[in-house]
Write a structure and sequence with these properties.
Helix content: 25-40%
Mean pLDDT: 97
Number of strands: 15
Number of helices: 14
Largest sheet: 8 strands, parallel
Structural class: alpha/beta
Distance between the termini: 32 Å
Strand content: 25-35%
Strand order of the largest sheet: 4-5-6-7-8-9-10-11
Order of helices and strands: EEEHHHHHEHEHEHEHEHEHHEHEHEEEE
Length: about 350
């Protein structure tokens, strides 16, 4: 194999803010390409400040280990992930980018999209992708929603005006709303806000409390009138069984769990113990979002709206409106990830 990598910087349409005042105007990402003959596999890993993940750091690790990666014989993507997992034990985002590229390359070689390689079928009733509204003044959030008509909205919360925010949005749409607190509430806040949000037609709450506030989550699960989904509390495979005691579902992030290979195992385990499964994004563009889309036949919910939030993209072939239904992802039938990489271009 040959390994290439580079930095990517794509702008958001609006500054993207989540709880605790974390805002970004661009998404910096690592892009990798694994080549074998005429086949090329691509992978994407976003840099996330609050996880101490930088493109520079990932590129430094790649350069140090370039030769050993290029010597690996790709005869099974799962073996490749195990090799990467031991090579970069503390860099799950980097492992994910390479694992993604490995699966894409393998799909090209086998001439099949990944969902077919995994023995799943693309159903007409796959989960609908939501559109995320980052935190802003209420008037701005209403304006963003009106500028982007969509069948489901995911709303970032974690402010002192959460209820007023959702009330205002509800006055302008009858579409389903989901809220994501990104660990921004205390137990006391959550016990007050969740019943109010339920009355406003919110359908689920993602990561209401700090990731290790297990006592609070135990209390919350007993009293919550809405389904509770773990995000920051469910990162790796070992977290799935723990979360079953405190949440109704989990949100799997490919970059955080270290790739497609462990995500397949996490989904199987979660469904086996009765958890609902969402797969979310870290604002990946087309390449990373296509990897999420390949899991659609296995998911209950999906949040893969990075390309919807950006003004530039890094690939073609991912369609968010199938048969005139916004949010429904058109079947990806091309081999591997099902999309083609393009250098960043304006939408």
């Amino acid at each position: 194999m040959q390994l290439e990598y580079w930095e990517q910087k794509l702008p958001f349409e609006y500054p993207f803010t989540i709880s605790n005042g974390r805002t970004k105007t661009h998404q910096h990402s690592l892009m990798v390409r694994l080549s074998l003959g005429n086949w090329n596999g691509f992978g994407e890993a976003p840099a996330i400040v609050y996880y101490n993940v930088t493109v520079e750091g990932m590129m430094e690790q790649l350069e140090k280990n370039r030769k050993v990666i290029e010597k690996f014989a790709l005869i099974d993507p799962e073996r490749f992930w195990h090799f990467l997992h031991h090579l970069f034990p503390n860099d799950p985002f980097l492992v994910c980018a390479l694992d993604m590229a490995g699966w894409d390359l393998w799909g090209q070689m086998k001439k099949q999209p990944l969902h077919e390689l995994w023995g799943t079928k693309w159903e007409a009733q796959s989960p609908i992708c939501d559109y995320t509204l980052g935190i802003d003044p209420i008037e701005k959030m209403v304006q963003k929603m009106q500028d982007h008509p969509w069948p489901i909205y995911k709303v970032k919360v974690g402010t002192d005006y959460d209820i007023e925010m959702i009330t205002a949005l509800r006055q302008h749409t009858d579409k389903p709303l989901r809220v994501d607190a990104n660990a921004g509430w205390t137990t006391e806040e959550a016990l007050i806000k969740i019943p109010a949000l339920a009355k406003l037609g919110v359908e689920l709450v993602e990561q209401p409390l700090a990731k290790d506030n297990w006592d609070g989550m135990e209390q919350l699960k007993k009293q919550s009138s809405l389904p509770l989904f773990a995000d920051e509390s469910c990162v790796f495979e070992k977290d799935v069984a723990v979360c079953a005691n405190y949440f109704h579902g989990i949100n799997i992030k490919l970059t955080k769990c270290s790739g497609l290979t462990p995500a397949l195992r996490m989904i199987k385990e979660a469904k086996g113990i009765g958890l609902k499964v969402m797969m979310g994004s870290m604002n990946e563009s087309v390449i990373g979002s296509a990897a999420i889309a390949q899991f659609l036949p296995q998911l209950d919910y999906v949040d893969m709206d990075g390309p919807l939030l950006m003004t530039e993209l890094n690939g073609v072939g991912l369609d968010y409106s199938f048969e005139n239904n916004n949010g429904v992802i058109a079947p990806l039938t091309r081999p591997g990830l099902g999309v083609q990489y393009r250098p960043p271009f304006a939408k």
